[in-house]
Amino acid sequence: MISSLRMSTVASLLVLFGILLVGGAHGQSGTIEGTVTQAGSGQPLPGVNVVIEDLNTGASTDADGNYAIEGVPVGTYEVTAQFVGFQSQTQGVEVSAGETITVDFVLTEETVGLDEIVVTGAAGETRREEVGNTVSSISVGDLEESPSSVEDILTGSLPGVTLNIGEGMSGSGSQIRLRGNTSVSQVNAPLVYVDGIRIRSTGYPKNVPPVGYDGRSANVTANPINDLNPVNIEQMEIVKGAAATTLYGTEAAPGVIQLFTKEGSPGSDPVWTAQVQQGVSDMQEFGPSSAPYYRIDPLLRQGRQQS
User: Fold this and answer.
1) Domain residue extents for the chain
2) Rounded to two decimals, what is the model's pTM?
3) Beta bridge partners of residue 59, listed in sequence order
4) Domain 117-264's class?
5) For residue 35, is pLDDT > 90?
6) Do 260 and 236 contact (CB within 8 A), yes or no?
7) Cα angle for residues 143, 144, 146 (degrees, 5° grid)
8) pLDDT, tens digit, for every residue of 48-87?
9) Options 2.60.40.2890, 1.25.40.10, 2.60.40.10, 2.60.40.1180; CATH of 2-107
């Protein structure tokens, strides 16, 4: 009898202690509540995340834009309201024991900043941070001087790009290398794409005279990339390194050059651009005084067309 009475007394004391403990805990915390609306219209915003980052806790607004965060310990905190398409807003609040603090937010719309897109040879576009290889880009409009050829855009504009000048004569092109040579037996020229369409990237055959022609030619190798008018190019992207093969195939081991041409925009006025290029070629005398042009004087006077 006495033992049962003692056990009942102990149980009662434990229940009373728990009630006092819970009541004391509630007495040391408060509640933050409020409404989140849209600036201008005043319409409530449902689904807004209202968080207290220091406590790693928060709540979401209901269909009427109301929220409530209960059990917030006594102290001073910063409450932040976050919602996609709106500017985040933060307010400071001081929580007292047993009190309910009202914190309302008015959010302003903002343009969502999207991740930069890299157009690749794969089935779709890829975000820049998802591309494991090095991607460099340059806008032609940002260049201080107007380029006379596509090679001029590459010269000194992007890191890791090397142009090896060949013959150095008029009409000759350069060998483009991205991070040097990658193979001793395969082509080391990077692939070239114009608006997603692949074009020839290796040099044209040398301009040599046909058999039976007694004249001469420049005997130079032209680069097909110079067939493009640099005025029509808006942006250039370069994917360097052998990792480019994951996007463009095994042929892209030397790298890839992507060229994007200019496009018209809806509602804009048409722009006309005129450009004139001219020059003079003067041939120096190289023969004796009796024959200053040594046997080619008839060709200079009469002209001769290579066929």
Assistant:
1) 2-107, 117-264
2) 0.47
3) 50
4) mainly beta
5) yes
6) yes
7) 75
8) 999 988 888 889 999 999 999 988 888 889 999 999 888 8
9) 2.60.40.10
